[in-house]
């Protein structure tokens, strides 16, 4: 549903050398292609490889939208979180439409709250796979996130299905850009972006946001009638329009 959206970052769109944060990029699995992982995670001790089309310290900035967009929507999610999946299914198409219209650009942030609370590694493992998709293209990133959050595929928090690489590869077959992409498959299998995923999670933990899904427009949290993240497209659009008027 997100096809054709332009990615905008604050450096050279992840093209490699000379990145301001000192984290070099390279092909999936390239040795010595970045700084060592200092996110404090207990796993994934390999070198940090930043996906293409990311920016900022450790590649933890993922911004999609027109450079001229005057507003920024921050979306905080956990790939294993059922309410996040429901939000994505209900509001995702509206966000895609608004991005294409230049209403705002979107910055994506990811947590591993379900992993921490219930055990397992599906949140983190799915995020690593999403990093491999981001390295392919922004559209692949967004389409794969859409597939992971779909009612057909999302396992809910009672099952740790996304800890299984085979399941993540199965879901990837729904994304045209990933179906036969050998580099993506290798990066997923090898855990190339495991350290990056831990960096993303550490950035979420430092953000001050404690719940997912959370959505903010220009730093102001958007809520629906329940007082939490908007549950429907109509609630979301009303909240966005109210914030823009304010």
TrEMBL record:
Gene3D superfamilies in alphabetical order: Glutaredoxin
Coiled coil: none
Protein origin, superkingdom: Bacteria
Stretches the record annotates as Disordered: 1-64
Any Pfam family matching the protein: Thioredoxin_4
Domain Thioredoxin-like fold: start-end pairs: 59-223
Protein name: Thioredoxin-like fold domain-containing protein
